[in-house]
Design brief:
Among the domains are: about 120 residues, Topoisomerase II, domain 5; about 80 residues, 2-Layer Sandwich (Gyrase A, domain 2); about 90 residues, Topoisomerase, domain 3; about 240 residues, 6 Propeller (Neuraminidase), CATH 2.120.10. Helix content is about 30%, strand content about 25%. The protein contains 17 helices and 36 strands. The strands form eleven sheets. The chain has a four-stranded mixed β-sheet. A four-stranded antiparallel β-sheet has the order 10-11-13-12, covered by helices on one side. It has a four-stranded antiparallel β-sheet with strand order 20-18-19-23, with no helix packed on it. A hairpin with an 8-residue loop joins β10 and β11. The longest helix is centred in the middle third of the chain and has 41 residues. The N and C termini lie far apart (about 100 Å). The relative contact order is 0.07.
Length: about 775
């Protein structure tokens, strides 16, 4: 049989199929429904545990593998790992504000430990989860076929509270995402009741009750009421979360000085203690948190407990400011109130909602649920009343009814005779025929009459609820308040704290001990810091590398390094990694370009240089000389650095030194052909910004300046690998732009040999 091949437009087909895929991810996996606050996988897990496996709160636990297998096989064919992860999350009290699953076994920990495999753990529903499905069998929500159409599942669960706001939700779909934080049940209930009483209540009025998110991990939200109100009005915005701490003092036996510790007792939502502890350890090891002796995680079932033991004399408040600034103990949480809103077709429509719209979506849904529940109960009552009325007619004259039935040919004949004599229908007559003999006793007859009276009163009550909307709204309020009374906890876990305006001005240098240090820079561009340095010969270096500079000064002072591209990079000395190893590449801290390398470095410690009275002397390979004020480079630079001078094409910086800003002194130049020049400072231009300077001397073809200094002596490496000393007193004073003096008759010089001196630093001023 020949097959017909139909040509299709690739772009149109790809667009249609991608759109179907995107909508499937949005509506069937990633986004929660505004009505019950659940994603499909969560809803299916709860439904299976309640209606299929009967794992209710008052029953026994069953293996999680059984739950996962049933959900995957009949309702959610997306893989066991995704289902089990959703099940585990619903059992974790640090993940959900109001957990839905009661887990038995290892369901993970806030420390970051993963849950055990589903073959080891067991689960059942919590009472709160069971309450979400109390009226599920009363035709309260629409049922739809499962993926294989072999059974049905609820479109949503008839939740008696706005679960989406209570537990929040996080998900990433195609082209959109959601990040709804959890809230306090008491606050949400009050806001919902206020909206029932007055549908015109504004978001601003609702936020007087809903103070803000209430995370299960506690902590603090650093936002003003105005900021939170703006987020709840627009559905989007960012808030800042941070953990809380206390200061504990312990008096060790046999010691006079008490031991002080910082104890972190809550962490930001979504973080683990392992993540936070690892970051704090990293900061301590890199000496960005000096004053912390050691850290430990003592978290247990009672709660979070991260202990930071402090050194004697450390400032706890200052250290915690640094921990907040540099670690993930303080994070940002982007609120995004995106969810699926109901549509007439039943397929959810994704949209960003404000607080009122979220509450109203649930209220509209709950009103429909309550109406359907009342209608269902009323219909069942009327069916029962109808039967009871028939029984009452017959049981009023039992002897005659028995005689009539005994005289009938068969069941059909008996039914017809009962219908004719007592004016019953088939349903009532069948109920009479099925009545058990003991029900003919006088006491049982009375029970039938009492039940009829009771059922009639209940039917009338339900009928009154269906007359007008106010009775049902009152019922919704009552049910919501009863739910809150059963499952609410009035005390908020997360505090709302107005941000401190002064926190942004935290000065990291306050943490750094004012101790003298040495910053070592190698010719290959490695940098490190050592507190004590006695012998330069014993400095550890990589094979083939050598020391380029040793910068001394206070750890809080700045250092400046210069590169052959004419750039200056300024950084606090304490930022250099403290290690006895080779150090880190300087490119780790600054954005060097290809071919850029270190040329020189200098200390900006005020005890060694006066920024106002000093300048930077710079000399290039093509012989350009200039001076710029040191004050232009006293503050830390960005990763891109600052320009020290402007270089001509093919030129590069070869020497930089800190010199007095006056005209006293000279600069000694040495070239690749063994020539030298000594130029007075008076002829070297002092520029106010980066410039090209002046030509220092006339260079021959292919001749370059290889070294320069303002010192009396210049140590040089020759082209043959030996070392020469060039003394300034042996070179005649020249003028800028003049000729060179021949110093070395054979060969030339390759580069300067670094002059490295260690000296005693002046004592620091006492504060």
């Amino acid at each position: 049989m020949a097959q017909t091949v139909e040509p299709i437009e690739l772009s149109q087909t790809a667009r249609e199929r991608y759109l179907r895929y995107a909508m499937s991810v949005i509506t069937a996996r990633a986004l929660p429904d505004a009505r019950d606050g659940l994603k499909p996988v969560q809803r299916r897990i709860l439904y299976v545990m309640e209606a299929v496996l009967h794992l209710r709160a008052d029953g026994q636990h069953k293996k999680s593998a059984q739950v996962v297998g049933r959900v995957m096989g009949e309702y959610h064919p997306h893989g066991d790992s995704a289902i089990y992860e959703a099940l585990v999350r619903m059992a974790q009290p640090w993940a959900l504000r109001y957990p839905l699953v009661d887990g038995q076994g290892n369901f993970g920990a806030i420390t970051g430990d993963s849950a055990a495999a589903f073959r080891y753990t067991e689960a059942k529903l919590r009472p709160l989860a069971s309450s979400l499905m109390e009226v599920l069998k009363e035709d309260t929500v629409a049922m739809r076929p499962t993926y294989d159409a072999k059974t049905t599942e609820p479109e949503v669960l008839p939740t008696p509270a706005p679960l989406l706001l209570l537990n929040g939700s996080t998900g990433i779909a195609v082209g959109m995402a959601t990040n709804i934080p959890p809230h306090n049940l008491e606050e949400i209930t009050k806001a919902t009741v206020a909206l029932i009483d007055n549908p015109d209540t504004s978001v601003a009025q609702l936020t007087r009750t809903v103070k803000g998110p209430d995370f299960p991990t506690g902590g603090e939200v650093l936002s003003t009421h105005a900021d939170l109100r703006a987020i709840y009005e627009t559905g989007r915005g960012s808030i800042k979360l941070r953990g809380t701490y206390s200061v504990e003092t312990e008096q060790p036996k046999g010691k006079r000085v008490p031991r002080v510790s910082l104890v972190i007792d809550s962490i930001p939502y979504g973080s683990t203690t392992a993540q936070i502890l690892a970051k704090i350890k990293e900061l301590v090891d890199s000496r960005k948190l000096p004053g912390i002796e050691h850290v430990s995680d003592q978290t247990d079932a009672k709660g979070v407990r991260l202990v930071l033991a402090l050194e004697s004399g450390a400032d706890p408040e200052l250290l915690m400011s640094a921990v907040y600034k540099y670690s993930n103990l303080e994070t940002s949480y982007g609120m995004n109130l995106t969810c699926l809103l109901p549509t007439p077709t039943g397929v959810g429509r994704p949209g960003v909602c404000n607080l009122k719209e979220l509450l109203q979506a649930w209220l509209d849904f709950r009103f429909d649920v309550v109406t359907r529940s009342i209608t269902y109960r009323k219909a069942r009552l009327e069916e029962r009343i109808h039967i009871l009325e028939g029984l009452s007619k017959v049981l009023g004259n039992v002897d005659a009814a028995i005689k009539l039935i005994r005289g009938a040919k068969d069941r059909a004949d008996a039914r017809d005779k009962l219908c004719a004599k007592y004016k019953l229908d088939d349903v009532q007559a069948n109920a009479v025929l099925e009545i058990q003999l003991y029900r003919l006793a006088k006491l049982e007859v009375k029970k039938v009459k009492d039940e009829l009276e009771e059922k009639s009163k209940e039917r009338d009550r339900l009928a009154r609820l269906l007359k007008g909307t106010k009775p049902r709204w009152d019922l919704i309020k009552t049910q919501l308040q009863e739910f809150t009374k059963s499952f609410g906890d009035r005390k908020r876990r997360t505090k709302i704290v107005a941000p401190d305006e002064e926190e942004g001005g935290f000065d990291a240098t306050l943490l750094i001990k004012k101790e003298d240090t040495h910053v070592l820079l190698s010719r290959e561009g490695r940098v490190r810091r050592q507190r004590a340095l006695e012998d330069l010969e014993k400095v550890r270096l990589r094979e083939g590398d050598e020391l380029l500079a040793v910068v001394q000064g206070c750890a809080t002072a700045n250092a400046v390094v210069f590169t052959n591209f004419g750039s200056a990079y300024v950084f606090p000395m304490h930022q250099a990694p403290a290690t006895t190893g080779y150090g880190d590449p300087i490119q780790k801290f600054f954005a060097f370009k290809d071919g850029e390398r270190l040329v020189a470095a200098a200390s900006l410690d005020p005890r060694l240089v006066s920024v106002e009275d000093s300048a930077l002397l710079a000399v290039t390979a093509q012989g350009q000389v200039l001076r710029v004020p040191l004050g232009l480079h006293q503050d830390p630079s960005t990763r891109a650095g600052r320009k020290l001078l402007r270089l001509a094409k093919g030129d590069e910086l070869v020497a930089v030194e800190v010199v007095p800003a006056g005209d006293e002194g000279h600069v000694l130049l040495a070239t690749s052909k063994g020539n030298a020049a000594k130029l007075p400072f008076a002829d070297v231009p002092l520029l106010s910004a980066a410039g090209k300077g002046r030509r220092g001397a006339k260079l021959a073809k292919q001749e370059q300046v290889v070294a320069a200094t303002a010192r009396p002596k210049l140590t040089l490496e020759t082209t043959r690998g030996s070392t020469d000393s060039l003394l300034a007193r042996n070179v005649s004073k020249g003028e800028v732009g003049g000729g060179l003096q021949e110093v070395k008759q054979r060969g030339g010089w390759r580069r300067a040999v670094p002059t490295l001196d260690l000296f005693e630093l002046p004592e620091q001023e006492q504060e």
